[in-house]
Amino acid sequence: TFSLPKMLLNEIQIDCDWTVSSKEKYFELLKLLYQQFDHKIKISATIRLHQIKFSKRTGIPPVDRGMLMFYNTGDLENLQTKNSILDISTANQYLENLEDYPLKLDLALPIFGWGVLFRGGKMIKLINNLSTNNLEKDDRFIKTEKNHFQLSKSTYLDGYYLYQDDIIRTEAISCDLLEETARVLGQKQWSDTLNISFYHLDTTTIKNHPHATLEKVCNYFE
Questions:
Q1: Strand order in 196-199's β-sheet?
Q2: Is residue 74 within 8 Å of residue 84, measured between CB atoms?
Q3: Are 164 and 172 in contact, with CB atoms under 8 Å apart?
Q4: How far is Cα 215 from Cα 222, in angstroms, rounded to an integer?
Q5: 101, 53, 108, 105: which is closest to 85 by C-alpha?
Q6: In the chain, count of helices (H) and strands (E)?
Q7: HEC readout, 55-78
């Protein structure tokens, strides 16, 4: 059972990347939450791009509204992927049914970055907030492509022990890419009550995406 906290609470958001096989149990959980909270607060759910495109198969969660997570569009584990966080051309292929989706949608845009560590051609780890600039200034890393670095020797990095010849692919969302994404999405039909979130806000991402940029992005949806 659940109880409402003493603080004023208007909405709870549940995050789950459900599938065809797990939707029945997940949707039942959402219904139980409504019952436990006696319908006194709204419930929203995170929505992935594939759940928009294939909504007839994945189903529509029984909630008041959804939050479209507009990121993680590429194959993270493929070494040749340029940027698994966001590729607009790939993401756009999932939006054919966006305006027919029966839930009112809010929007989460990415501003995070990370390093994707490969060993022997296999992805084994993510290193958060690791940027190209971090590695370009360090002679332990040999730049082999625009955002690929190979370790010249075994060493520690951010508390992780890495091996010689490991490869790190750095991925990030530049201000230009964020604005381009907003221009594309701003042409879609959204609810008048659209909320925009940036994932995730911390001291590192704010340095790379100042307030003026985030405000400009939001203006594309006016």
A1: 11-14, 42-47, 65-69, 104-110, 196-199
A2: yes
A3: no
A4: 11
A5: 108
A6: 8, 12
A7: HHHHCCCCCCEEEEECCCCCCCCC
CB contact at 8 A, 201 and 211: no
Global pTM value: 0.90
Distance CA 145, CA 129 (A): 19
The encoded tokens of residue 114 equal 């990370």
Secondary structure class of 154 (helix, strand, coil)? coil
Burial degree of 214 (CB within 10 A; 0-12, 13-18, 19+): buried
Distance, in Å, from the CA atom of 210 to the CA atom of 51, rounded to the nearest integer, reads 31
Q: Which residues pair with 11 in a beta bridge?
A: 42
Distance CA 125, CA 115 (A): 8
Q: How confident is the model at residue 2, as a pLDDT?
A: 56
- Kind and range of the H or E element at 198? strand 196-199
Kindly report, residue by residue over 76-130, the tens digit of the pLDDT: 999 999 999 999 989 999 998 898 999 999 999 999 999 999 999 999 999 999 9
- Written as one string, the DSSP assignment of 81-118 is -S-SS--HHHHHTT-TTGGG-SSEEEEEEE---EEEEE
| Number of Cβ atoms within 10 Å of the Cβ of 173 | 22
- CA count, 13 A, side-chain hemisphere, 175: 12
CB within 8 Å of 143: residues ≥ 6 apart: 135, 136, 149
